[in-house]
Amino acid sequence: MNTVNINAIRSHYDRLSIFYWFLWGEHIHHGFWRNGESPEEAQVHLIEELANRTRMQRGDKVLDVGCGLGGSSFWLARKLNCSVLGITISPVQKRLAEKRARSLGLSNRVRFVVEDANELDLGTESFDAIWSIECSEHLFEKERFIRNCARMLRPGGVLALCTWLTAEPFSPSANSTLVVKICSGMLCASLGTFNDYISWMNGSGFGEIRADDVTRQVEKTWEICQDILHRPMVRAVLPLMGSQTREFITGFSEMRRAYREGAMLYGMFSARKT
After folding, report:
1. Which CATH number goes with the domain that contains 126?
2. Residue 79: pLDDT above 90?
3. Global confidence as pTM
4. What is the mean pLDDT of residues 62-74?
5. Domain coverage including residue 141
């Protein structure tokens, strides 16, 4: 049984955000490999791919849902001159992101608040774009989240979303056990399928829906994560971490296996409010 709850998710990111920053920098998400890029370049490429597919406009007012340490928010502000509100469940992430915004001179264009994305209520028709990379996995009512996005977007506004997916059709055998184990270790409330997200977007008033399987372009992420675990400093601190954190780290190899065996996919979605 999946025992993930909102307090466990908040505690996880409060505890490990510094660890993430040390390992990955300000982007806490997969990389998108076109050729032989570094991990940092590949993470920026993921942002570029999503922004290009969504056809975001310069100066858009953007809500970044699950903003993490602010990496996407800063990119959108610098590259597209967007005004960005980033929301995170973690007070620690908020403080780190605010500090980084000040150092980049972006505090006038990027703001961060602590919010539960399960309960979003930030006004009606308040944003030109809603951006969310690898956050909806943690949400308990994904369809409700998509409806809330539609409500908060202005007519013609865009939804840009990347998420982990379970394969379709979902295998009831070994793949099912693997995905359930990953959800527990990675603190995912559940995983949807491509058809789930397309159906939720259609039912919420979105059109121009584009759904791309980019698993092959991003799967190298977990090979790199496994390699990182062999660094002497990381190996030295692993025994000091709690059981939940160790379960999370064990999930690195399981994620790699899930992609390789087709139990999980990585989806990149864009849609426009009609």
Report:
1. 3.40.50.150
2. yes
3. 0.93
4. 98
5. 6-273
